[in-house]
Write a structure and sequence with these properties.
The protein is mostly helical. The protein has one domain. The chain contains 4 helices and no strands. α1 runs antiparallel to α4 and α2 packs across α3.
């Protein structure tokens, strides 16, 4: 996911991914981890927490199913920004 830090996947307020998370009552971290967990081809997910609070949030994300609508919205973001190296500079946060 680090490669997608441009436009959509950045996590700054107003970005598409944050909007999807907010719409489905998830934090951006919960959305990202739930998405990874919903993929059959992902065999392990590395979490990064710098506080006990973040650790609890990350672990809790694995018990939250990814809503089908959120999954479809994320797929639309990926289709829009499938190659982050080609995102127009004006849209990068």
């Amino acid at each position: 996911m680090r490669a997608l830090r441009g436009a959509c996947w950045a996590g700054a307020d107003g970005c598409a991914r944050s909007e999807v998370a907010r719409k489905h009552a998830l934090s951006p971290a919960e959305l990202a981890l739930a998405w990874c967990n919903s993929r059959d081809y992902v065999t392990s997910t590395i979490i990064g927490a710098t506080s006990v609070e973040q650790l609890h949030e990350n672990i809790g994300a694995f018990s939250k199913p990814l809503p089908e609508e959120a999954d479809a919205e994320i797929e639309a973001i990926f289709r829009c920004f499938s190659d982050p190296t080609k995102v127009p500079a004006a849209t990068v946060r």
